[in-house]
Design brief:
Belongs to the phosphatidylethanolamine-binding protein family. InterPro entries: PEBP (IPR008914), PEBP-like_sf (IPR036610), PEBP_euk (IPR035810), Phosphatidylethanolamine-bd_CS (IPR001858). Keywords: Signal. It is a single chain. The protein has a single domain, classed as PEBP-like (Phosphatidylethanolamine-binding Protein). It is an alpha+beta fold. It starts with a helix and ends with a strand. The chain has 2 helices and 8 strands, in the order αβββββββαβ. The strands form 2 sheets. The protein has a 5-stranded antiparallel beta sheet with strand order 6-5-4-7-8, with helices on one face. A 3-stranded antiparallel beta sheet has the order 2-1-3, with no helix packed on it. Strand 5 and strand 6 form a beta hairpin. Bound molecules: 2-acetamido-2-deoxy-beta-D-glucopyranose.
């Protein structure tokens, strides 16, 4: 009797452990997708703090670009008169919450670029943590949002270079939390697959 009770508890415990681990992993990257969208919502009202320009096109609300137009790294310019504090480090993250599609972001959020620790407003002195990769939405997957998140920090970001294999389901929340990044502004453009 006593043994059976222990056995049952043992089973229940293993079941709960397996179940919570599985659902934990599944939910994890969904929360990162949600986080990107939350940051976009919070940062968009301050979008005029920085400019993102591809060729002749400056990214604004509802900007749509083709894969070709957005395949090379854009020119970035932060307006330092609008920054709250000086002598801090700038970090820019470009990330797609809609991978492989907005309805089913199973691979999201997908990382496209991180340049960190810049003190110049054009990021020319920044450290590339993840190489720029232009949009490549699979055909038929509709519009993808390429979200630019501009952060500041008092200390430099310390992070290993992100490899191509680590772009999908990028742990953006961990990256922001570990490096004590504060969101300054956000904007996005879309490219359709
Ligand atoms: C930087 O330091 C200041 C002063 O201690 C603080 O108010 C601010 O929140 C810090 N910024 C970030 C992004 O942590």
């Amino acid at each position: 009797m006593h043994c059976a009770v222990i056995y049952k508890f043992h089973c229940l415990f293993i079941y709960l452990l397996v179940f919570s681990t599985m659902s934990g992993n599944k939910g994890d990257h969904r929360e990162d997708v949600e986080y990107v969208l939350k940051e976009l919502k919070e940062g968009a009202p301050h979008g005029d703090l920085f400019e993102v320009t591809y060729g002749e096109t400056t990214v604004d609300h509802n900007t749509e670009l083709t894969k070709d137009e957005s395949k090379t790294k854009p020119v970035i310019e932060v307006d330092n008169t609008k920054l709250k504090a000086k002598n801090q480090f700038l970090t820019l993250v470009v990330i797609d919450p809609d991978a492989p599609s907005r309805d089913n972001p199973a691979n999201g959020p997908y990382l496209h670029y991180i340049v960190a620790n810049a003190q110049k407003m054009d990021f020319s002195d920044g450290t590339t943590i993840c190489n720029y990769m232009g949009p490549s939405p699979p055909s038929g997957t509709g519009p993808h949002r390429y979200v630019f998140l501009l952060y500041i920090s008092n200390d430099t970001v310390q992070h290993d270079k992100v490899q191509d294999s680590q772009r999908k389901q990028f742990h953006i929340r961990d990256f922001v939390r570990k490096n004590n990044l504060g969101l300054e502004a956000a904007k996005y453009f879309t490219t359709s697959g």
